[in-house]
Known about the structure:
Elements: E1 2-8, E2 20-27, H1 30-38, H2 40-43, E3 47-50, E4 56-57, E5 62-69, E6 74-80, E7 83-89, H3 94-103, E8 128-129, E9 132-133, E10 138-145, E11 150-155, H4 156-159, E12 176-186, H5 196-205, H6 211-225, E13 233-237, E14 243-244, H7 246-255, E15 262-263, E16 269-270, H8 273-279, E17 286-287, E18 290-292, E19 299-302, H9 308-326, E20 335-336
Parallel strand pairs: 2-5, 3-5, 4-20
Antiparallel strand pairs: 1-2, 6-7, 7-12, 8-9, 10-11, 10-12, 13-19, 14-16, 15-16, 17-18, 18-19
Helix pairs in contact: 5-6
The structure holds flavin-adenine dinucleotide and NADP nicotinamide-adenine-dinucleotide phosphate.
Amino acid sequence: MQIKKNISLKSYNTFGIEAKAQLLVNIESEEQLKEAYQSPKLMALPKLVLGGGSNILFTKNQRKAILKINIRGIDVLDQKDHEVRVKVGAGEIWHQFVLWCLDHNLGGVENLSLIPGTVGAAPVQNIGAYGVELKDVFDSLEAYEIKSGKIKLFNKEQCQFDYRNSFFKGRGKDQFVITSVTFKLSTQPRFDVSYGGIQRWLDEKGLELNIHNISESVIHIRQTKLPDPVKIGNAGSFFKNPIIEKPLHEALKLIYEDLPHYPLDSGSIKIPAAWLIEQCGWKGRRMDQIGVHERQPLVLVNYGGGKGLEILKLSEQIQISIQNKFGIELKTEVNIF
Ligand code: FAD
Ligand code: NAP
């Protein structure tokens, strides 16, 4: 087990926030994970499980042992008719796994191209983009239970997947470390181009509908719209899109005729948080080294040298203004430490 002391976390979070960790432990296998929780040297310290750090905001130095999950491996388990089950180590890079699927002509994750981070973190918030969520291709996962020191198998129901949420972000928080995820992929996938931009891009380029072209389209749209964390620190959408009930929606429509909205199967209505934030005048606003991105106001950015607490404060100001103007509570998507 490789242990580093008093280390800067700046290169371990895509916000690029400077914070110190008391210890950082690289975890390459399930055995090392068990060792980290059971060794007397580390037992006394609280732990923080880290993947790619792309959904995290550090607001202080971490008097903890950071467990950086690097468990690797992509293994085909079996194939039944058109369905192929693939088991993937939690430390694999999500987009590398998507590329592996494309190389093997396996469909299901193409709409989730270019999402940063690791495979092990993907179920934590049930990652989603362009009409597809992790739960749509999920078979099962294995996780280390901290209390018992045993590996447990979770099926889809037990993971309680929801909109950018799961058991691991809710009731199971801080109790499990995901070590592998098994996916159900397809050799004859159904395509989802419900997000207009994908089909438009394919039409413009004269490209046929297949997993390779969908992935290319998603990559193109994302690169055009979102800041690259290598160039400008960010953690993607800072807030979740709020889901409101019909009476509030009816009341808001009377005032804001152009209010964008997406009805859900549950009868509730999803409102794009980006629109709400823009209406409150935050889009493109900059305060010294931090700000709200100029093209995508759901993304808060660190231009370099910004502090985690400053970003947190900005996020709270945005939440208050949305609450005051629309009576809507914006919930944070990013994990604050
Ligand atoms: P981290 O940030 O390291 O960790 C996130 C949380 O998961 C933490 O609470 C951590 O403790 C926990 N965790 C990490 N690994 C494990 C594990 N093995 N077991 C248990 N808990 C663990 N998200 C989307 O859903 N859709 C998008 O389209 C999207 N686009 C993004 C675009 C950009 C530019 C950026 C920067 C982020 C985007 N995100 C998106 C958010 C982020 O990429 C995802 O949430 C991703 O799954 C986080 O992975 P990570 O490995 O970086 O997790
Ligand atoms: P967009 O396409 O401009 O759409 C704006 C919002 O409207 C999105 O948040 C999306 O909700 C919703 N939406 C658009 N078309 C929809 C449809 N046909 N049905 C239902 N809802 C629809 O969004 P964007 O900002 O460019 O992002 C594109 C996709 O990438 C989105 O799915 C977004 O969630 C994802 N993304 C996520 C992050 C993150 O960090 N979580 C960062 C960047 C992009 P949903 O968000 O619910 O899909």
